[in-house]
Specification:
Blueprint lengths: L6 E5 L5 H22 L11 H6 L4 E9 L3 H9 L2 E10 L2 E8 L8
Antiparallel strand pairs: 1-2, 2-4, 3-4
């Protein structure tokens, strides 16, 4: 029997520009909220770049979820929450598990 990966997975923005860009987008969005709450834009994370994030030596984690491939309501729920399909595993003959990884919204290109 195969086991389905569910839980937390380490991300590697130092090796994947797409991951680094998504993390930077999420970081800036979070720091904008903090800056508004404290009334000051003087938060170093607001001015980070992809290269700075990739070289920071930080450890990043992402969320991975799994559920029955035939469970359409659960699949719709995961997808509506920003999870994207990341493969399938047959855990026993005829029983398939779908895997989902959460990804922050992609930055808008201006």
């Amino acid at each position: 029997m195969n086991t389905a990966p569910t839980g937390v997975a380490r991300l590697h923005p130092e090796h994947d520009t797409r991951v680094a860009e998504a993390l930077l987008h999420l970081q800036i969005a979070a720091y904008r909220v903090e800056a508004a709450l404290i009334g000051s834009p003087a938060i170093p994370g607001l001015t980070d770049t992809v290269d700075a994030l990739r070289g920071a030596g930080s450890t990043w984690f992402g969320v991975v979820e799994s559920g029955g491939r035939a469970d359409a309501p659960a699949r719709r729920l995961y997808e509506s929450a920003g999870f994207r399909g990341a493969g399938h595993t047959e855990v026993e003959p005829g029983l398939w598990i779908s895997h989902y990884a959460w990804e922050p919204p992609q930055p808008r290109r201006t």
